[in-house]
Amino acid sequence: MSGDRVELGDLTDLADGDLRSFEEVGRYGLVVCRAGGELYALDDNCSHADTPLSEGRLRGFSITCPLHGASFDVRDGSHSGPPAWEGVPCHRVEESDGSASVVLADADGRGDDGDLPGAPLRMR
Ligand code: FES
């Protein structure tokens, strides 16, 4: 549910460029990754054809779907272009004292405050 906070535990072992799946969190599970030293979370579901993004590859701030190659910016869920036609919901991750939690956004990527966690989702 939008605005719910879910504890993810200690993710200090998640190195820059690593990603991890949390299958039980959110509507489709979450893919959580560390990029540029920060944690980011997206729905673990490509907007093109329902494939887990956690099975894809993370390079910089871009995660690439393993099925047809659409990529998404982990900072805001926006997509780079076809074959995906829209972004994926992005969730705010907070980390302090070795413990991480995520605030679940709604299907549009909006959090409990109505704001997007990063830049607005771009629809192309
Ligand atoms: S299922 Fe992800 S690009 Fe097609």
Which helices and strands, and how do they pair?
Layout: E1 5-9, E2 19-22, E3 30-35, E4 38-43, E5 57-59, E6 62-64, E7 71-73, E8 90-96, E9 99-103
Antiparallel strand pairs: 1-9, 2-3, 3-4, 4-8, 5-6, 6-7, 8-9
The protein binds FE2/S2 (inorganic) cluster (FES).
FE2/S2 (inorganic) cluster (FES) binds next to loops.
What's the short version?
The protein has 124 residues and is mainly beta.
Structure description:
The protein is mostly beta strands and 124 residues long. It has a single domain (5-103), classed as Rieske Iron-sulfur Protein, CATH 2.102.10.10. Helices cover 0% and strands 34% of the residues. The protein is built from no helices and 9 strands. The chain has strands at 5-9, 19-22, 30-35, 38-43, 57-59, 62-64, 71-73, 90-96, 99-103. The strands form 2 sheets. It has a 6-stranded antiparallel sheet, with no helix packed on it. Strands 5-6-7 form a 3-stranded antiparallel sheet, with no helix packed on it. The radius of gyration is 13 Å and the shape is globular. The relative contact order is 0.21. The model is unreliable at 118-124 (pLDDT under 50). FE2/S2 (inorganic) cluster binds at residues 46, 48-49, 51, 65, 67-70, 83-84.
